[in-house]
Design goal:
This protein is α+β, with helices and mostly antiparallel strands and 262 residues long. It has one domain (56-259): Fumarylacetoacetate hydrolase, domain 2 (Alpha-Beta Complex). Helix content is 26%, strand content 26%. The strands form two sheets. Strands 1, 2, 3, 4, 5, 8 and 9 form a seven-stranded mixed sheet that branches. Strands 7-6-10-11 form a four-stranded antiparallel sheet, with no helix packed on it. Bound molecules: 2-oxoadipic acid (OOG) and magnesium ion (MG).
Length: 262
């Protein structure tokens, strides 16, 4: 399918997802895909899933929050994407590889919001006050572009590679955790892979969310009470294949483990 406008971009990305195949960058096919247009594609793609598949919006995710990823993409604040109910994977469930193209797993700090957050001018202190609980999370990303090769508008249009996520059961009040110092160690099949702290998320995950909320306000959007927020990968994402187990040990949010089907 040749992409030349918003509707064809939406259909192409949905088709790649349902047929489990990746594609080339849309930006190389359609020069009209700038960043504002990419957010339109993202919201129409989400709208199509809600309308056609009975899906529902349950939150917001931040992406590209690390300094390294931001430098690579030439940005200085997070991108945002939409979390859908169909992305939820219960803790302990096997990762269904037959639904995925090229999955990777990243540890994240997850907020359950108890207050609405609406920009502009939201501060990190206001974000902290709006959080109900903080949880450990695994996001399973799955780019619809070959080898995760994309320009910024491509990945925004693709709902930031969203596929599935797991939220840990243990929830800690924001006042009882140092988000910047929270530490995670990731291992794959028992071997150490990465470690990081919350500082990897835009210096401070609460600051990352403040920046994101203020950008959402420019598009007339906000974060509602009760929503989930995935604040962005703390480490690089780890590829997961048949039978692999990826584990995360957080310093105060407990542990998570995710095993893929064979
Ligand atoms: C984009 C996904 C971004 C994160 O946490 O940074 C994201 C990608 O790297 O494919 O979820
Ligand atoms: Mg992520």
């Amino acid at each position: 399918m040749t992409v030349s406008d918003v509707p064809s971009a939406v259909e192409s990305l949905l088709e790649c997802e349902s047929e489990r195949r990746s594609r080339g960058r849309i930006t190389e096919e359609w020069s009209g895909l700038d960043l504002p247009t990419a957010y339109t594609v993202q919201s129409e793609l989400v709208g199509a899933k809600v309308l056609r598949q009975g899906d529902s919006v349950i939150g917001t995710k931040l992406g590209l929050t690390s300094e390294a990823k931001q430098r690579r993409m030439g940005i200085s604040s997070p991108l945002t994407a939409v979390l859908l109910k169909s992305y939820v994977l219960e803790p302990g469930a096997l990762l269904p590889l037959d639904r995925l193209i090229q999955p990777r797993v990243e540890p994240e700090l997850v907020f359950v919001m108890r207050k609405k957050l609406q920009g502009p001018d939201v501060t990190a202190a206001e974000v902290l006050d709006a959080i109900g609980s903080v949880h450990a999370g695994f996001e399973v990303i799955d780019s619809r572009y070959h080898d995760y090769s994309f320009a910024l508008p491509d990945v925004v249009a693709d709902n930031a590679s969203s596929a599935l996520f797991v939220v840990g059961e243990l929830g800690v009040p924001a006042a009882n955790i140092d988000l910047v110092a929270e530490h995670v160690t990731i291992s794959k099949n028992g071997e150490f892979v990465y470690e990081a702290t919350g500082a990897a998320v835009q210096g401070n995950p609460a600051h990352a969310l403040a920046l994101a909320v203020n950008e959402l306000a420019q598009r007339g959007q906000y974060i509602n009470a009760g929503e989930l927020v995935l604040t962005g990968g703390m480490t690089d994402a780890v590829p997961i294949g048949p039978g692999d187990t990826i584990s995360a040990v957080f310093s105060s949010l407990g542990s998570l483990s995710l095993t893929a089907t064979t």
